[in-house]
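Appendix B, Record 12. Input sequence as logged:
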Amino acid sequence: MRAPAVRRAAAALILLAAATPSAAQRTRGGAYVPGAGEDWQRRPPAQVGMDSARLQAAVAFHREHESKLPRDLVQAHFQTFGREPFGDPVGPFKPRGEPTGIVLRHGYIVAEWGDPRRVDMTFSVTKSFLSTVVGLAYDRRMIRSLDDPVAAYMAPVIPYDPAGAAARPVTGRLAGGDVLEPFETPHNRRLTWDHMLRQVSDWEGTLWGKPEWADRPSGEPSTWATRARREPGTAYEYNDVRVNALALAALQVWRRPLPQVLREMVMEPIGASSTWRWTGYDNSWVVMDGEAVQSVSGGGHWGGGMFISARDMARFGLLTLRRGRWGDRQILSDEWVRRALTPTQAQPTYGVMNWFLNTDRKLLASAPASAFVHLGNGTNAIYVDPEHDLVVVVRWIENDQLDGFVQRVLASITDPR
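Logged structural output:
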């Protein structure tokens, strides 16, 4: 390893002395739970069974393998997804920060580097927050069964379009497209919540100006819009238009903005900051009970999605490591977490979005098969390792270097307990 890289990593690594957690910061089983905001205790690596020098080497590896895409994420968009059909952005972007990360062991902060309080786009890690609000609805039996057709929960959706309303004929007859019914084709009426959550739906249609076939198109262009639909459940395809259709369906179930649901039921209980924002698109507003509500997106494919700090990502990762429990409170049911960690038949390394599984160690060869990752473009990752009681957030690393980074973090563990 080059000496400057080691010095940079050593300077950036925050390794502070221990403090004794209060009784209020321990669960009944004795596991440490951070307090809200800045009330988060730290431990030197040696105190939690990790080697400081090897941990510094992992941080240096991250810095040496920063994503090669521009930090200006508008430029990055037009070098990647922006080249697709209908690729123009419709949601907000912001420039990103430097390579950033956090390592948690047994819930304590062991290392931080970069700017862990900086709020950045997190792209498809947003999908894990989307599936969480669906899980909250399922836990409350607002969704009775994940095998129910989504269409059974949908009302006609009225887009919020003041300019369009003003342009309608005085006869009062609505122009075509005034009502959205995204689950009313013969194929889409068969799609269940489970199909949508696992990205095995082959949902067809256009939403917020984006046809589903225009997302990562492949094969012969003449067939993109005309091919036969696949049987639901038989084929996995990562597709943000379909994810946004799921977000719209979840909005119909909750009848209020999904960021409000997430804030009240997850982010505030786990002590997250007030700086995160979850957005949709300029044109993804609908009328809900007489009010304009934005239907949020499941990622930053065309802009938008979750804007969040590494600190808040780490709290969410710790919640999933603890199987939905935070202290004495069960925020997400263990049943939901079990479902999220169940491999999808058509894609065994995918659970419920966006819980990427390490089934047969195919995703990360260096990690235990029990590990999982909340993963998004950038690359943004929340690595969760129950075997080692470990959560690692890593932001803006080359995608093909994620395993090498995880390998180095795991090599720093001297006590697996």
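The longest strand covers residues 277-288.
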